[in-house]
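__Record contents__

***
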Amino acid sequence: METKSYTETEKVVQGLNGLVLMPILILLHISTIAGFIISAIHSSVMSIVLCGLGFIIIPLCYPGLKIINPNEALVLALFGKYYGTIRQAGFHWVHPFCVGINPTASSASTQSNLKETTKSLFVGQLSSGVAEESRTSGKKLSLKTLTLKNDIQKVNDVLGNPVEIGVNVIWQIANTAKAVFNVDNYKEYLSIQCDSALRHIARSYPYDVSEQGDERSLRGSSQEVAEKLKDELQAKVEVAGIKVLEVRITHLAYAPEIAAAMLQRQQAVAVIEARQKIVEGAVGMVEMALHKLSENNIVTLDDERKAAMVSNLLVVLCGNKDAQPIVNSGSIY
C-alpha cells in the first residue's frame, strides 16, 4: 500500500531583518508608554485608548523575532498550516503567530526540564531565561552531517548462522518539510529503518566464503554490502526527507554461542589447506629427486626401493617434527 505524504515540497521563506525591526518595535513600545502618559495628563480618552491598544499589540510582535544559527533550519506553521522554512542564518522577523515545529524537541525538552527541576531542588530557584532558551533552540532542525550508531544487532546470515553486526550511518536532513510532517520522529524513524535494512541485507550473504566457492560474503564483500545497505536505507527514509551519505560496517562477528565452534571450523579448514599445500610440494620434490637420480645415473633403484625412498621422503617432508637421520653402514640390498 502506497503511503501518501502530507507535503512533498519544502518552502523556503526569508523574514524581515530582525536587527532593523527590533529597534523599531522597542521605539514604538516606548512611544506608546509616553503617549499614554501624555494623553492621561491631557485627559484625551481617544489617545489613551489608542496608546493602550498599542501597548498591548506591540509586545505580540516580539515572538516573531527568530535567531537562526549556521547549518540550522526552523520549520514554521501558521494556524495549523505549513508556513515555510527559514534556512538562512541570521536574525529574522516573521509572522508573530508562526510556531516552530520539531518532533524531536519534546523528549529533549522533557529531559531539559527534568534537569532544571532537579537543579532547582538544590539551588532553590529556576532560571526561566535558560529554560526558555533551551525550548527555543529545541525547535530548530540541525542541517549538519550527523552520525547514527545503533546498538549491535544479532541477525542470521543466509546459512542461518547467528551473527553480530553493527553499522555506522552518516546522514543529514535534505527536506525539512518531509522530516517534520511526514513522520512522527525522523531520528527514531531512521534508527528503526536502519535496523530493518540491516537485517534484510545480512540475510542475503553468508558470514564467510561458503564451501560452494561463492566469494560474496559479509566479511569479504563489506564494500558491496555497505553500498546495498545504503541504497535500501535511502529508499526507506526518502519519505522522511533524509539523505544517507555513507554506511559502514563497524562490527562483524559470530554470535558468542557459536563463536568457539566456528573458530574450530576455521582452524580445521586452515589446517587442511596447509596440509594440501605441503603434500603437493612434497610430491613435487620427490618426483624431482627421482628424475634427477635417474637422469644422472647416480643410482639404479628397482620399484621396491623407489617405493621405500618415496615413503621415506614423504614422511620427512610432511612430518610435523624434524626427522632423525639414520646412517646405514651396510648394503641397501
In short: The first helix runs from residue 18 to 42. The radius of gyration is 38 Å. Confidence is low (pLDDT under 50) at residues 108-136.
